[in-house]
Amino acid sequence: MGSVFERYIRQKPVVGKEVFLARGAIVYGAVTLKDYSSVWFNAVLRADINEIVIGKYSNVQDNATFHTGSKTRSELGDYVTVGHNAIVHGCKVCDGCMIGMGSILLDDAVIPEGCLVGAGSVVTPKLKAEPHTLILGSPAKVVRELSQEEVDGLKNWAMEYAEVAQYHLKNKIGLGSLLQS
């Protein structure tokens, strides 16, 4: 286990351009934050046993928790919104998704492109979803296909958060800092 610690814990996060990290957020270990992503107040991204990757223009909202499995990293694609108090653990969320507030995504779960996971849903690895679908419940199930307008709206949420994050950066409001290993 010691080599795992050396491989992940001691890595410093890799931060792209114009990334917003809010005061109180914790970003630790083998984390990559791509350009224009944001991590909001009191969110925790702890990559001590595997990697966490946050895509371009994606946002991790207040109090969300990210961790990994020893064999599964946590990965967000581009233009993803992760709502307040969500838990993302060792899974993959593809481009253009929204993960609702208080949702839980378990190891090995995969959320296809352009999906909306409703607030409070629990997504297990057994979920088999197609792109552009609404996913709800505990355990989560596919409820219906999303309209193109709904899919476009998911990306718009991510872009709005990116704009708010850029305002915070420009005006030096609520800025946090990275932990040093």
What does this structure look like?
The chain contains two helices and 18 strands. The chain has helices spanning 2-8, 148-170; strands at 14-15, 20-21, 26-33, 38-39, 44-54, 59-60, 65-67, 74-76, 81-82, 87-89, 92-93, 98-99, 104-105, 110-111, 116-117, 122-123, 133-137, 140-145. Helices cover 17% and strands 34% of the residues. The protein has 181 residues and is an alpha/beta fold. The chain has one domain (2-170): UDP N-Acetylglucosamine Acyltransferase, domain 1, CATH 2.160.10.10. Strands 1, 3, 5, 7, 8, 10, 11, 13, 14 and 16 form a ten-stranded parallel sheet that branches. The mean pLDDT is 95. Strand 17 (133-137) and strand 18 form a beta hairpin. It starts with a helix and ends in an 11-residue tail after the last helix.
Q: How large is the count of helical segments?
A: 2
Fold-level CATH name: UDP N-Acetylglucosamine Acyltransferase, domain 1
Shape: globular
Radius of gyration from the alpha-carbon trace, in angstroms: 15 Å
Helical amount: 10-25%
Low-confidence stretches: none
Number of strands: 18
Head-to-tail CA distance between termini: 18 Å
Number of domains: 1
What fraction strand? Answer: 25-35%
Q: Architecture, CATH level 2?
A: 3 Solenoid
> Strand-and-helix sequence, N→C?
HEEEEEEEEEEEEEEEEEEH
Reported for the largest beta sheet, the result is: 10 strands, parallel
Question: What is the CATH domain class?
Answer: Mainly Beta
Structural class: alpha/beta
